[in-house]
Design goal:
single chain, about 140 residues, mainly alpha, 434 Repressor (Amino-terminal Domain), 2 domains, about 70% helix, elongated
């Protein structure tokens, strides 16, 4: 069986429509799922992992390898690795967006802020509040 056929079989076993799977995967239309199931679209590794997570199997099973009896410990390890990867991707995205909007100085500021203890963080906020009340440190709005 191809990966697409395996995805179709698993989707049907779980009583999911192509629309439901498309939504769970973040696709805008069921035609993307149809193309994958028909073998007309290749899956990047990230999507293979996401399909495996949504369908509750391992990526190896989607590739057609015989599943081994995974222990609860192995399943927990898989979930932990997958979730850590997702968390890291979200953090990278957030940092990229902060840098786009506020520049590299904002990233440096956050990095330094994270090294402080609770008392240091409070002092940093107080210092920034003081600085923001001094006119020469306030960014001037462009007309």
């Amino acid at each position: 069986m191809t990966t697409g056929q395996i995805i179709k079989m698993l989707r049907e076993e779980r009583g999911m429509t192509q629309e439901q799977l498309a939504e769970a995967m973040g696709y805008s239309h069921k035609s993307s799922i149809n193309k994958i199931e028909m073998g007309k679209a290749d899956l990047p590794q990230s999507k293979l992992i996401a399909f495996a997570k949504v369908l509750g199997v391992t990526p190896c099973e989607l590739l057609g390898f015989e599943p081994t009896k995974a222990t609860d410990e192995q399943k927990e390890l898989w979930d932990k690795k997958f979730n850590e990867n997702q968390r890291l991707q979200k953090e990278v995205y957030l940092l990229e967006e902060i840098q786009k909007k506020f520049g590299k100085e904002a990233i440096k500021l956050l990095d330094l802020f994270c090294t402080l203890n609770k008392s240091g963080k409070q002092k940093a906020v107080e210092t920034l509040e003081d600085l923001s009340s001094i006119q020469k440190y306030i960014e001037k709005e462009s007309d």
